[in-house]
Amino acid sequence: MDIASEAKLLVPSMTVNVQPFRAVGSATFFFYTLFIVDFFLHLSQRVPGIDVIRPTLLLVVVIAALLYSQRITLSQRGSNSISDAMKVLIFYMILTIPFVTFPGSVIKENLSDFAKAVVFFYFTAMTVDTPSRLKKFLLVFVSCQLFRVLEPLYLNITSGYWGGATYIGSGDFANRLAGAPNDVINPNELGFVIVTLFPFLHYLLLPRGWISKILYVILTAALFYALILTMSRGALLALMVVAFMVFKESKQKLPLMIFAVVVVVSAWTVMNDTQKDRYLSLISSEANASATVDGRFRGMVEEFELGMRRPVFGHGLGTTPEAKYNFTGYRQASHNLYAELIIEIGLIGMYLFLRVLYRIYKSITKLRAIVQEGHIESQRILKVVLCVFFMYVIYSTNYWGLNQSYWYLLAGLTVALLQIIGNNPSFDIYGQENMTDHPLAGRR
User: Fold this and answer.
1) Residues 6+ apart with CB under 8 A from 143
2) Are 63 and 278 in contact (CB under 8 A)?
3) In which region does residue 442 sit, left (phi positive, over 0), alpha (psi from -120 to 50) or beta (all else)?
4) Is-contact 176 230, C-beta < 8 A?
5) What is the distance between the alpha carbons of residues 436 and 440, in angstroms, rounded to a whole number?
6) Residue 407: predicted pLDDT
7) Which residue has the higher pLDDT, 290 or 228?
């Protein structure tokens, strides 16, 4: 049995090509990396006059046109279970628009936001198709997320910028670090960005030379401090998931435990009383901020109850605030993805969305079976993706997702890895083609 056949056996959802794999044009990938920079750094708000041409929309049109012009090349690629599940989900959501509670709101206000999010899946899956492009994609994505964290942290240190606040009772508010003025994300969203970065830095930066190790220590220290300033309890829980996954995968458990103790003690010493109280509210009902935790849980229960009012087709994509206002009198949502799924696309839609997530997980585990221990770098990126996957699963209890890009980008990245590893199992993600030392070599 040859390598391609064995790869197909290990990843049955992937149709492995026996013909040479053809990548899309360099211009297509370049415009996608530019789209990532524009989307996450909001270039239209930073560069005077550029908003006139609506760069995000323009880039989407250009990339889509370039991909369409290469449709023959793309049609020669193998199918995969994630793309199949995503197609069914999208088709269902469009097909059921006439049957939801607020179809007008879906079409006029929310469908475009969903389109902006879902393009991350298709653009990533179609353009990140070689090992070198994967490296460039990861560099651009991680750099953008780092900038989104370091910019408001720098403004906080130099000019006292916060960007957000939370009510602490008796008419008082406590400052919370949010996104920079040109990056309108609230403290919980900034915490989400911070926690997303940790697996990438830990697996892709720490294992390298001493300069990378020093950079890792500096960046993680800055990220931890920024996370404290956000006072995001959901992000702290997500960080615990990341820590558990790293600990589980590591062969150096004692040093990690010592490092964790040092981090916790250091973090506690730099917190003020309000920050300590907010984080303690996760485990103590005596903390002043525990009331907000109870309120969040009650809000989640209300949202699940609201979803069960229209359990078949839901109220419509992106209509959670509107549905809440009509049935409860207020629009503020608890930002629970799983409740949002039932509210907006019903139980059938929820099943189809979770089916996509399940296939992401299965694809990652099958890829890990292919590369095994033959390529350290390939294993590292797969550990990153698996760690981020479980972190997203947990954080989605405190974060919305249908019209957000993060699940779709992760799904697209997984498909890209299926193409790079599944279609070309002799490739190391960060190395050269080597038939002799790959785990599948010699088993023909």
Assistant:
1) none
2) no
3) left
4) yes
5) 9
6) 95
7) 228
